[in-house]
Amino acid sequence: MKENLTDQIKGIYQNGMRWIQLEIQYAKLTATEKLTVLMTTLVLGAVCLLLGVVILILLSFALVDVFKGIMDPGLAYLTVGGILILMIVAIILLRRPLLENPIARLLSKLILDIKPSDHEHK
Question: pTM for this structure?
Answer without folding.
Answer: 0.66
